[in-house]
Each structure stands twice: as C-alpha cells, then as structure tokens.
C-alpha cells in the first residue's frame, strides 16, 4: 500500500481534490443545464401535462420564421453596444481621474463603487421612480425650463434609460479594475517620458494603454458577457417595452419559456444567446495577440 501512494500520486490526488469543488460546480450548473437545454430544444414540452414530443430541428427552423427576432436582436445589439462602450470608456476615465493624489479621492472612489453593492432590483426600482413622467428627473428638467419626456414610454428614451441605469450601477467594477492596473504602471516610465519632452496624451497612448491592455481585455470580456445577460433592469424598468424596443434576447428567452410556456423554443433561444457569448468571448481572446501588451 505504501509503495502505491508515491509522492507523485499523492500530489496528483491533492490537485484533483483542490479542483473537485469547481469541477462539480461546472458539471452541475453548466454542463448539465446546457445538455438539458439542448434536449428541450429538440422537444415540444407541454408544461401542464408534462408530455414531451420530439420535434427535431423544428424550433431551430422557427428562428428564421420568427418575425419578432430581428427586432429583439437589434435591441440586444443597441443595448449591449451602449453598455459596453460607455462602461469601459467611463470606467477608464474615472480611474484616470481618481488615480491622482488629492483630498477626497477615497470618498469619490467609494461613491462611484457603491452602486455595485446595491441590489439590482432595488436600484432599478429607484430609477423607475426617478424616470416616471412626474418623477425626480422630469421635475428637475421642468424646474430649469427644459422639455421633460416620458422616458419609459418611448422607444428611444426607454433604451437610453435602461442603458444609463445599467452603466451607472456597474461602472464602478471597471473603475476598480482600471485603478489597480494604473497603480501597477511603473512611475519611472512617466518620469523618463517627461524628461524626453513627451506630452500627457502621448504618455497615455504609448505607456499607459499598452501596459494596462490586459486589464482592458478582461473588462471588455466581463462587460460584454454582463451586458448580454442583463435581465432585471429590463424586466423592472420597461418589461421589454414599449413594443419590442427594449426586449433584449435574454428577456425574450424568459418571455417565450415562462410567460408563453414554450420551453422548447425558449431553450433554443437560450442556446443562441450562449453561442453569441461564446463567439464574442473567443473573438476577443483571439484578437488579444494584436493589441494586448506582452502577448506573443
């Protein structure tokens, strides 16, 4: 028995024991649900009787014939694009401003990060009250003599509202990541650049951005995945309306599966969403070699 448990085998067993919790979690909460979604997408399931009928690729063919799907995909692109661009841009801008030493820097860092720890539903409910026709935002606009639109009842302003509420709540995460990256840039590089007569813009583009590019990649992946999975903001603020103007793909999955009780088609849409997330993540990962510093 002692001969069997060599040092190498004990090390291997220790390694497997360490990864076992994560591996079990992946199997239970990723692989099995994806496998069930694939199975449900191939069947028509009557949730009331519990009867399943195998329909093969019918649900996949229904994707091409769904008249609402183009509008849903357009809303998904607009929402995700707005959230990603604003979140990364503002997160980096705020991090650069707060990376300096001045009185109150800690207060402002806490201020910008505090929405992250607030419940998504509570945060969205507050924004819902603020964005009502007689809410706080319109009251402020009327007080200074500006037009006060009904933010959540018109397509363009409804989409703008959900994008802004999402960005304001989540920009603190990217700010913290960028702050950590900025504080890791050696100050000697900036001093050498100043001696050579470099301007602030040149130092930012030629020193700061290349050195924090791995963090930019990380925040881009996190923000894209988070934007594609945003559900509570849409459900609480607009319910996908008016019309389909704010019905993003993840909310459309919920509608089909749990409001219209079409589990098969909802699972098919969920697999489409999963494929979008995987493709975008892999695309960003492959493009890292062209713009991420230290990548070969």
TrEMBL record:
**Which PANTHER family does this one have?**
ABC TRANSPORTER PERMEASE PROTEIN, DIACETYLCHITOBIOSE UPTAKE SYSTEM PERMEASE PROTEIN NGCF
Q: Which family does it belong to?
A: Belongs to the binding-protein-dependent transport system permease family.
Q: Does the keyword Cell division apply?
A: no
* Location (main, coarse): membrane
Judging by the UniProt lineage, the source's domain of life is Bacteria
Per UniProt, which keywords does this protein have?
Answer: Cell membrane, Membrane, Sugar transport, Transmembrane, Transmembrane helix, Transport
Q: Which residues cross the membrane?
A: 12-40, 72-98, 110-130, 158-182, 203-228, 234-254, 266-287
Q: Which InterPro entries match?
A: ABC_transporter_permease, MetI-like, MetI-like_sf
- Pfam families listed in its UniProt record: BPD_transp_1
**Where does this protein reside within or beyond the cell?**
Cell membrane
Q: How does it sit in the membrane?
A: Multi-pass membrane protein
The ABC transmembrane type-1 domain covers: 73-284
Protein name (record): Multiple sugar transport system permease protein
Keyword Transmembrane among record annotations: yes
| Gene3D superfamilies the record matches | MetI-like (1.10.3720.10)
